[in-house]
């Protein structure tokens, strides 16, 4: 998700891709945790937009090197602050997005310096012109929870690790040169002049450095505070107000005070902390808070005890080993690296966004406490919902339902503290950006509930879902509710919005049914059919209508970009977005054979990439299919619904072989906070949630020889495949717990109950398997999706 976009009623902006290839199976080393097979460098080149630095699962801190913080017009490539092809570093900052298509954060930038201190960043092409330093990838160590590099211009060895709310640094300085740490509160990822509205910086009596800054970036008015301590006493310190320097331009008259030793306030602050000649490494620990300096100090006191960097590094690795142990995969080193790096990336967001005292900042800008009718919970933010509802959050509901419950409680809390009374659209650190389209927090909640996730207030959740689906000012929902579609003469990208709203409506109906709310279910089941209002049988494509009911002319299915009928796509890519009723879409397109033929034409088209010159996120092209962007993610699985699962198997092989590689530029596009990675994980296991809020997964084909899911309650579900190699790319037959499986879908309950899914692979397609109508995944118009056995049935009405 990505490119700049503006709503008619509120400004918005944007946010896209990851994962990796597999080879022949070999036994995994049981003595090592899976973190040994994580390579955070994957995605740091090209358009992957991942960061290589230190963090823990869903951690508040993402402590990572920054190679650039360019102005907002050129920030796309550096959305995570780091590009593998760069040769110098600005320093290390404490907050980053993983794989987003939009940039911000890069808070609390620090740089260790040996010798003379320069206060400007400098020109990468002119070494020594500023405080930035050259580095070599040969000196980097990049692991889950740990990053190290040598800063060549200072001969300083920098090491980073992280806790949930603390960033830990260790800097080893060369002998004979004075050691300094520079703190720059001016730059941010997605930087531009005037972004910092105000900042404060001070050194407290005990030597703790604290400060805050307020920025007008992607989320306007965002405040971020910090507290920093050092393992060695400062010899001296100077705090600079660089804006004052610029204003006075060398005039030293009354009122001139560019620097201060103890405190500064302004919009362009820096601090330099001097430590003299050090005989041992300098330790630095930093806590952050979106609430206050006092809360940052409390976070540091609670979670930043002592100075044992190696112990903290071991703890971070232990957290990753524990999280990654949710799935055991056997295979070659390449297979394991691809799989576990994908799982690693899928477990980075949403991030913890509350302090140790339970306080968080809500979308209203006020401070709140993370407590609801079920008690205290952990508030998380960083929600790329247009992306993660598809596979990343369904993966959490499957592997980590307890954590999924905290995520949903966070979404409800955001709605309850929102001045608009709706669920988040694209939020981070509690604040809303209004990026992208749809109300996709709705399927996140519905999918979890239908699959048995509990521990949250279902009545409050349903109320929030209905509020989001009926808030007329958002994305022209008012006209959508009146007309049954979004009119293009009132709202841009109207075809995409109509389709996505209709799916969200269907997911809401599924939760209402599971709760026994037939009245709500009936309303939104009806709205779920609104996709038909976008379908043009004359052209065979989804199109945007005008208020008078006519389709907008002229029409070109190849057209994409701003001003088109579609969001980050064209008609070839969006005309398949009816996940709730694929059977009806097949019928509308003329039946199985015509549907399959048209789907083939998507993958086999000869495409001029210039169509997407102004849409930077449409990447990873196979014909019109764009794996680097989410609207295409379910397309390969649609053959299952038309009785041609062998075609799904064929297309998945194409995608896996061409879109993932274990190298820095090995991702087809933005990871979008784990969505691209989650697609890979599900597809490698052999099944995928085409329709979140259904209890079904469409079966593809596996790309690992053996994988064991360790599920809550001590259950295990094992996927095996034999023979698994390039000579046997097709599924010959499938068994579930030793019995033949003639259908091309799995039910969620079958997975969480434990058991074994076995694929027998073969060289040629099995064109008979999965053809029967009752062998295909469910569609709204031909069968009713069954909720899992754990779903609650309620009588009576919940006030909405």
Automatic annotation (TrEMBL):
Residues 38-289 form the Glycosyl hydrolase family 92 N-terminal domain. Coiled coil: none annotated. PANTHER family: PEPTIDE N-GLYCANASE PNGASE -RELATED, SECRETED PROTEIN. It is an enzyme of class 3 (hydrolase). It comes from the Bacteria. Residues 774-800 are annotated as: Disordered. Transmembrane segments: none annotated. Its EC number is 3.2.1.-. Residues 295-762 form the Glycosyl hydrolase family domain. Residues 791-800 have a biased composition (Basic and acidic residues). NCBIfam families: aman2_put (TIGR01180). Keywords: Glycosidase, Hydrolase, Signal. One of its GO terms (molecular function) is hydrolase activity, acting on glycosyl bonds. It comes from Dyella kyungheensis. Residues 780-790 have a biased composition (Polar residues). The keyword Signal applies. Residues 1-30 form the signal peptide. This is GH92 family glycosyl hydrolase. It holds the Pfam family Glyco_hydro_92N. InterPro entries: 6-hairpin_glycosidase_sf, GH-type_carb-bd, GH92_a_mannosidase_put, GH92_N, Glyco_hydro_92, PNGase. The keyword Signal applies.
């Amino acid at each position: 998700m990505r490119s700049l976009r503006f709503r008619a009623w509120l400004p918005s902006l944007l946010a896209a891709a990851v994962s990796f290839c597999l080879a022949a199976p070999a036994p995994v080393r049981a003595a090592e945790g899976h973190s040994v097979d994580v390579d955070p460098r994957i995605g740091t080149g090209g358009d992957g937009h991942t960061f290589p630095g230190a963090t823990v699962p869903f951690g508040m801190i993402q402590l990572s090197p920054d190679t650039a913080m360019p102005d907002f017009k050129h920030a796309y490539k550096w959305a995570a602050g780091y590009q593998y092809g760069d040769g110098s570093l600005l320093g290390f900052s404490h907050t980053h997005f993983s794989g987003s298509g939009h940039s911000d954060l890069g808070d609390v930038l620090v740089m260790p310096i040996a010798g003379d201190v320069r206060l400007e960043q400098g020109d990468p092409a002119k070494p020594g012109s500023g405080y930035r330093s050259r580095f070599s990838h040969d000196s980097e160590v990049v692991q889950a929870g740990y990053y190290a590099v040598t800063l060549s211009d200072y001969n300083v060895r920098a090491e980073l690790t992280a806790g949930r709310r603390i960033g830990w640094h260790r800097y080893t300085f060369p002998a004979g040169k004075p050691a300094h740490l520079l703190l720059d509160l001016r730059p941010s990822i997605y930087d531009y002049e005037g972004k910092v509205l105000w900042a404060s910086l001070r050194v407290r009596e005990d030597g703790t450095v604290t400060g805050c800054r307020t920025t007008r970036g992607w989320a306007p008015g965002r405040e971020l505070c910090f507290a920093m301590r050092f393992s060695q006493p400062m010899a001296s310190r100077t705090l600079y107000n660089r804006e004052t320097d610029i204003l006075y331009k060398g005039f030293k008259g009354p009122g001139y005070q560019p620097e201060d030793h103890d405190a500064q306030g302004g919009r362009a602050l820096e601090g330099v902390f001097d430590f003299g000649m050090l005989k041992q490494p300098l330790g630095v620990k930093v806590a952050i808070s979106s609430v206050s300096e006092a809360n940052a100090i409390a976070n540091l006191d609670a979670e930043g005890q002592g100075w044992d960097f190696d112990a903290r590094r071991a703890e971070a690795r232990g957290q990753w080993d524990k999280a990654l142990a949710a799935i055991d995969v056997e295979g070659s080193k390449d297979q394991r690296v691809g799989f576990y790096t994908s799982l690693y990336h899928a477990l980075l967001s949403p991030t913890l966004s509350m302090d140790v005292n339970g306080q968080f900042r809500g979308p209203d800008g006020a401070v709140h406490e993370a407590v609801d009718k079920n008690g205290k919970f952990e508030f998380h933010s960083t929600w790329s919902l247009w992306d993660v509802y598809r596979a990343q959050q369904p993966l959490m509901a499957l592997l980590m339902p307890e954590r999924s419950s905290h995520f949903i409680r966070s979404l409800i809390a955001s709605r309850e503290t929102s001045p608009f009374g709706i669920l988040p659209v694209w939020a981070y650190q509690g604040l809303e950006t209004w990026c992208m389209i749809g109300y996709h927090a709705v399927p996140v909640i519905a999918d979890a509930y239908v699959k048995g996730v509990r521990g949250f207030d279902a009545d409050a959740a349903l109320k929030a879902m209905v509020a989001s689906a009926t808030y007329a000012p958002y994305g022209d929902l008012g006209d959508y509710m009146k007309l049954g579609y979004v009119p293009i003469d009132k709202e841009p990208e109207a075809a995409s919005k109509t389709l996505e709203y209709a799916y969200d409506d269907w997911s809401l109906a599924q939760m209402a049914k599971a709760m026994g709310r037939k009245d709500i279910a009936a309303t939104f089941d009806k709205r779920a059919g609104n996709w038909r209002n976008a379908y043009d049988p004359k052209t065979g494509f989804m199109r945007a209508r005008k208020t008078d009911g006519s389709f907008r002319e002229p029409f070109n299915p190849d057209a994409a970009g701003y001003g088109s009928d579609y969001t980050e796509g064209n008609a070839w890519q969006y005309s398949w977005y009816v996940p709730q009723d694929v059977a009806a879409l097949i019928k509308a397109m003329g039946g199985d054979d015509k549907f399959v033929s048209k789907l083939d034409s998507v993958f086999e088209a000869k495409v001029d990439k210039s169509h997407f010159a102004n849409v930077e996120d449409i990447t990873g092209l196979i014909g019109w299919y764009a794996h680097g962007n989410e609207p295409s993610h379910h397309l390969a699985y649609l053959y299952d619904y038309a009785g041609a699962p062998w075609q799904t198997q064929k297309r998945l092989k194409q995608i896996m072989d061409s879109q993932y590689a274990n190298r820095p530029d090995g991702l087809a596009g933005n990871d979008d906070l784990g969505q691209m990675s989650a697609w890979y994980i599900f597809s490698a296991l052999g099944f995928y949630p085409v329709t979140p809020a259904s209890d079904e997964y469409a079966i593809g084909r596996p790309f690992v020889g053996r994988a064991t899911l360790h599920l809550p309650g001590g259950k295990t579900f094992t996927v095996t495949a034999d023979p698994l190699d390039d000579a046997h790319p097709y599924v010959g037959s499938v068994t579930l717990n030793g019995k033949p499986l003639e259908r091309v879908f799995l039910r969620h309950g079958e997975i969480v109950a434990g058991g074994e899914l076995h694929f027998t692979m073969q060289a040629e397609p099995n064109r008979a398997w999965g053809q029967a109508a009752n062998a295909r995944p469910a569609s709204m118009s031909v069968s009713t999706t069954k909720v899992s056995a754990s779903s609650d049935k309620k009588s009576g009405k919940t006030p909405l």
